[in-house]
Amino acid sequence: xxxxxxxxxxxxxxxxxxxxxxxxxxxxxxxxxxxxxxxxxxxxxxxxxxxxxxxxxxxxxxxxxxxxxxxxxxxxxxxxxxxxxxxxxxxxxxxxxxxxxxxxxxxxxxxxxxxxxxxxxxxxxxxxxxxxxxxxxxxxxxxxxxxxxxxxxxxxxxxxxxxxxxxxxxxxxxxxxxxxxxxxxxxxxxxxxxxxxxxxxxxxxxxxxxxxxxxxxxxxxxxxxxxxxxxxxxxxxxxxxxxxxxxxxxxxxxxxxxxxxxxxxxxxxxxxxxxxxxxxxxxxxxxxxxxxxxxxxxxxxxxxxxxxxxxxxxxxxxxxxxxxxxxxxxxxxxxxxxxxxxxxxxxxxxxxxxxxxxxxxxxxxxxxxxxxxxxxxxxxxxxxxxxxxxxxxxxxxxxxxxxxxxxxxxxxxxxxxxxxxxxxxxxxxxxxxxxxxxxx
Length: 440
Hints:
With about 450 residues, the protein is an alpha+beta fold. The protein has helices at about 40-60, 65-85, 135-140, 145-150, 190, 195-205, 210-225, 255-275, 280-335, 380-385, 390-410, and strands spanning about 5-10, 20-25, 30-35, 90-100, 105-115, 115-120, 125-130, 170-175, 185, 230-240, 335-340, 345-350, 360-370, 385-390, 430. It starts with a strand and ends in a 10-residue tail after the last strand.
């Protein structure tokens, strides 16, 4: 039996006027969707996706069923975008986790499409489970960027995979053994854009109630900049498997979710039902004492870290005030560039979108790239104007949009085809994550 406790929070942030994120928090299904595609399209896409996901998973509450539910959600968003011209090009990311029963054993199934993320906090360490489906991440895989460079790359938000932007989608799938005391974090990129893993881990380790954790993380991201919508779902495993040093809790995911689950879970059952040897009987009390000692040490550390986190929040707030003053001065003293649309062609302008005081934008480069050459879900932002700091970065942004369109039209050119095993259906990818995150 697996018992979970959860909490969630969301905020529009300090820059956006509309919250296009959505959180799902139910007894056995949790998800975060980050919509995109203009003022209304993103809201519609995320709502359609989470509603379709819940309905489809309810019909087939298994690991394979969760993956199929994401595929059905993709079809729902795509169909709606084709029916309504005002919603053409909308899409959404989606990361979701559910409790499923495979061959009589509870397992946590996790799926992901896009750059919303899922993390596992285990024994004081936080590990990212999902991989971003973004142009920057593809550049990391090909060696063009390091992970550190990708984290701050100006166009890291250009996606190579999302729900609703094409009739089919590849879904990444994991299964994880529910270990008592583990904590899972599902979040939109509005959180990870503002806080690093150390800051997030500090909150996860310092506060017991998952709802308070979610609220603190959202508040900290908003204070740190709030440049995007921020959504967080925190899930705690209250009742699950014991974290026993004598038996592994992590195993790689096999292509066939159900058959692999049967094999690995069966081996776990054999270990549990077989009688203990004399060595294990002699060492059992010491193992229990070690676990109790670790739990006492973690509880004591949480008390100390809580003070550290409060101090950290003060530093963040103070830094935000200084940063705000700096950027206010910089706003008046420096020029800016942005990419806009003129007669269906992407054009680079010097100045602020819409002009600032007496200064009006000046056309500096006609790129020759048309609106047909870029992903449709970026047209709303382009027509509104996408700001860049230099002409060079604006040209790079246009080039990356063209590359993203090519990725969506032919995923094989961006490595999408290499992640699908031959024995796996085309719409589902069973992804091998770092061995510290995938549990059987």
